[in-house]
Design brief:
By secondary structure, this protein is mainly α. The protein has 10 helices and no strands.
């Protein structure tokens, strides 16, 4: 299981770098132990270098072909994942799905932190909050279809292992999103009712606790919060309201 997990992380990291024209960096699983055999390191390095050289060669040929096509047709061909995603979304009839833009803005952080389960959960929770403002039905499988179509167009050595790795990633993200979708609206109503029921003494206690907790976690913050008490109370009230 650990071997398959590490292999998927490497595929996700390398193919995401290719799709966004970045240097290839191989991700490691949480707690993954380093191999102590030098020949194993050397073999892996040679494999990565070989794949990188092949990817660069293929990318160069692809860029030349795209340049020729642009010269002939005058149309700019998408070369990065965000560009290709928007292009495919329009072609596939999903151009009006504005909620997809929220996932598109967050997908880079999700892929980069896929090996960190806590950070991945955090990114998914934040994304669910951002998507809460959209009304109507959100069909997450539509994003997966556009995402895979875009990656197939950008990653020239795309194969079945890539399909499995990216489907696995999205299935996990979709599962975490489904748990939270629909809840922020209910939480907002309950929080608003709670805050409106507080008297001044309770609000003052909350203000003190906010700064007490913050300064405990980040002592250097005391150097920046030197405003008047009234201003500090205003900041604390805004913080609680934004929650």
């Amino acid at each position: 299981v650990r071997r398959n997990y590490a292999a998927r992380l490497r595929i996700l990291s390398s193919s995401w770098a290719v799709a966004n024209k970045r240097p290839v960096q191989v991700a490691k699983a949480e707690g993954e132990e380093e191999s102590t055999a030098e020949d194993s390191h050397r073999a892996k390095a040679q494999q990565v270098q070989g794949r990188t050289a092949e990817a660069r060669k293929a990318e160069g040929s692809h860029n030349e072909a795209q340049k020729r096509n642009r010269d002939r047709s005058g149309i700019s061909v998408p070369t990065t994942f965000p560009e290709m995603f928007k292009f495919n979304a329009a072609v596939m009839g999903f151009g009006t799905r504005t909620w997809m833009q929220e996932i598109l803005a967050a997908i880079d952080a999700i892929v980069r932190n896929v090996s960190n389960s806590h950070r991945l959960q955090e990114e998914s929770d934040i994304l669910a909050l951002r998507m809460a403002k959209y009304k109507g039905v959100v069909t997450l499988s539509e994003f997966k279809s556009v995402m895979l179509a875009s990656l197939r167009s950008l990653v020239k050595n795309w194969g079945s292992l890539h399909e499995v790795a990216w489907s696995w990633l999205w299935d996990n993200v979709e599962r975490m999103l489904r748990v939270e979708l629909g809840k922020p609206q209910k939480h907002e109503a309950a929080l608003s009712a709670f805050l409106s029921s507080l008297d001044e003494d309770s609000l003052m206690l909350i203000r003190r606790e906010v700064y007490s907790k913050f300064f405990t976690l980040a002592p250097l913050g005391q150097d920046y919060f030197k405003q008047s008490t009234t201003r500090l109370h205003f900041i604390a009230d805004k913080l609680v309201t934004m929650t």
